[in-house]
């Protein structure tokens, strides 16, 4: 059986005051072999990884770095959610452990392509202490800008099982004379570990999330952020150290991708479809379910998804799925455009150019109500079809691939560095290594000065 290799597209964004956007609470890569509307996941719900034998940086040793990686993986694999009875239950069934056979040589600019390729081999976490690997991949001008990159590299021929990936972390940003993340090692380390958690989320096949976007869209590193504790780890920008802990939306997404039986039995799902004014599926609309009780509860208990995210580009339908719904609680389902700073090639799947030019609103239930609830776990709540009279990016598509007729497994990228394409120049969209993987660099949004 032949392995499949993901296509590579990278968007580079340098530090600046401008912005960029993405897709929410869903998968990074989906089945584009059978177009089954299923997210990919690690084969047998198991990820075995190897650590680069070298140091992460001149200030962070190998053992410290491995500790950071292990801690972050632990947060993703040990997720618990509270059910309707307020019991904390295990909801994520993903086994993550160190591989038994790993590289013994330091991975650097001279040999990183031995691991960054479409061949069978280990999933490695690379410690790029000099920034040379990052500079080789995303350009010398981004050596001191991009914190990390990650991606599932290879899946099996069935189109459903990830078998190899890579994460690369730029230790140069932790050097004593580098101030991209701050001026002291403690501050730099806090932000860096947020990046580690985010990038390993991509490695596990989580896409971005803009849950609670209206409350946090103006937050920046170096500034106060009133609602900082409600920002998902998978938010497209690094704006607060609270992103070093998983938000409920993050927890639900990893639980949906790798569900325990308890997750499927104890929680419900809300689903529906969105169409344009001509009755065609409208993909790329951000949909959120929020609990309707209390002042801050809606911010804590919020779940998001992008319409049509389970099919690549313009193929498939425009259905959304809001998992992790607690029985007996009332939810309001709303829709909105993906944030203007997150549009491009792309922070969110499935489209580079999601629809715009429409107001946000409430999606009615199947019976026309403004709120919905389920009685017991395992139920599916079908919402009324929603029509949005706006331009449809897929209007000229034949039903497979994008509007231009191309088909890709993923075109997402992230840098967590809030910035503008102008800062990276005309070469910002970079095709490398004969189309190997959609690497996801980390974007920082910080206050100037």
List the helices and strands and how they pair.
Blueprint: E1 4-5, E2 10-11, E3 41-42, E4 46-51, H1 62-77, E5 80-82, E6 88-90, E7 95-98, E8 123-128, H2 132-138, E9 148-155, E10 161-170, H3 185-203, H4 213-216, H5 248-257, H6 261-266, E11 268-276, E12 285-291, H7 297-300, E13 302-306, E14 319-325, E15 331-337, E16 361-362, E17 380-382, E18 386-388, H8 421-424, E19 429-430
Parallel strand pairs: 3-10, 4-7, 4-8, 8-10, 11-17, 11-18
Antiparallel strand pairs: 1-9, 2-19, 5-6, 9-10, 11-14, 12-13, 12-15, 15-16
Helix pairs in contact: 1-3
What does this structure look like?
- The protein is α/β, with parallel strands linked by helices and 449 residues long.
- The protein has a single domain (4-430), classed as 3-Layer(aba) Sandwich (Collagenase (Catalytic Domain)), CATH 3.40.390.
- It is 16% helix and 20% strand.
- The strands form five sheets. Strands 1, 3, 4, 7, 8, 9 and 10 form a seven-stranded mixed beta sheet that branches. Strands 11, 14, 17 and 18 form a four-stranded mixed beta sheet that branches. The chain has a four-stranded antiparallel beta sheet with strand order 13-12-15-16.
- Strand 5 (80-82) and strand 6 form a beta hairpin.
CA radius of gyration is: 20 Å
Percentage of residues in DSSP E strands: 15-25%
Mean pLDDT: 83
Number of DSSP strand runs:
19
Main sheet characteristics: 7 strands, mixed
Q: Could you give the order of the helices and strands? A: EEEEHEEEEHEEHHHHEEHEEEEEEHE
Fraction of residues in helix: 10-25%
Separation of the first and last Cα atoms: 54 Å
Q: What's the architecture, going by CATH?
A: 3-Layer(aba) Sandwich
CATH superfamily: Collagenase (Catalytic Domain)
Q: What is the CATH C-level name? A: Alpha Beta
**How many helices does DSSP assign?**
8
CATH topology: Collagenase (Catalytic Domain)
């Amino acid at each position: 059986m032949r392995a499949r290799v993901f296509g590579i597209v990278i968007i580079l964004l340098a530090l600046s005051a401008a912005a960029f956007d993405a897709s929410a609470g869903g998968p990074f890569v989906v089945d584009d072999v059978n177009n089954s509307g299923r997210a990919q996941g690690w084969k047998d719900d198991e990820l075995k990884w190897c650590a680069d034998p070298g140091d992460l940086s001149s200030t962070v040793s190998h053992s410290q770095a491995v500790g950071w990686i292990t801690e972050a993986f632990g947060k993703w694999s040990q997720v618990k959610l509270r059910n309707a009875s307020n019991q904390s239950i295990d909801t994520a069934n993903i086994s993550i452990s160190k591989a038994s056979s790993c590289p013994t040589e330091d991975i650097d600019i001279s040999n990183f392509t031995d691991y960054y390729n479409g061949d069978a081999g280990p999933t490695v976490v690379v410690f790029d202490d000099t920034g040379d690997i990052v500079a080789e991949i995303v350009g010398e001008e981004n050596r001191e800008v991009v914190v990390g990159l990650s991606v599932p590299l290879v899946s099996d021929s069935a189109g459903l099982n990830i078998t190899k990936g890579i994460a690369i972390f730029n230790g140069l940003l932790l050097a004593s004379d580098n101030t991209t993340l701050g001026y002291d090692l403690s501050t730099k380390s806090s932000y860096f570990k947020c990046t580690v958690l985010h990038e390993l989320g991509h490695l596990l096949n989580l896409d971005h999330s803009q849950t609670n976007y209206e409350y946090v869209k103006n937050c920046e590193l170096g500034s106060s952020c009133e609602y900082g504790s409600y920002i998902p780890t998978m938010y497209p920008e690094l704006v607060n150290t609270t992103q070093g802990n998983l938000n409920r939306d993050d927890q639900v997404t990893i639980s949906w991708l790798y569900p325990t039986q308890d997750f499927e039995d104890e929680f419900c799902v809300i689903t529906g479809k969105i169409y344009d004014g001509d009755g065609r599926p409208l993909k790329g609309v951000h949909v959120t379910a929020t609990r309707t009780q209390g002042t801050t509860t809606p911010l804590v208990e919020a779940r998001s998804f992008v319409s049509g995210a389970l099919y690549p580009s313009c193929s498939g339908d425009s259905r959304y799925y809001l998992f992790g719904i607690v029985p007996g609680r009332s939810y309001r389902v709303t829709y909105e455009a993906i944030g203007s700073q997150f549009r491009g090639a792309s922070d969110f799947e499935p489209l580079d150019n999601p629809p715009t030019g429409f107001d946000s609103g409430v999606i009615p239930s199947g019976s026309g109500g403004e709120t919905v609830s389920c009685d017991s776990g395992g139920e599916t709540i079908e919402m009324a079809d929603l029509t949005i009279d706006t331009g449809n990016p897929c209007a000229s598509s034949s039903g497979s691939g994008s509007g231009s007729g191309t088909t890709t497994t993923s075109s997402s990228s992230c840098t967590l560095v809030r910035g503008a394409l102008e800062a990276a120049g005309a070469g910002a969209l970079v095709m490398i290594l004969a189309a190997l993987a959609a690497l996801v660099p980390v974007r920082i949004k910080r206050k100037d000065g």
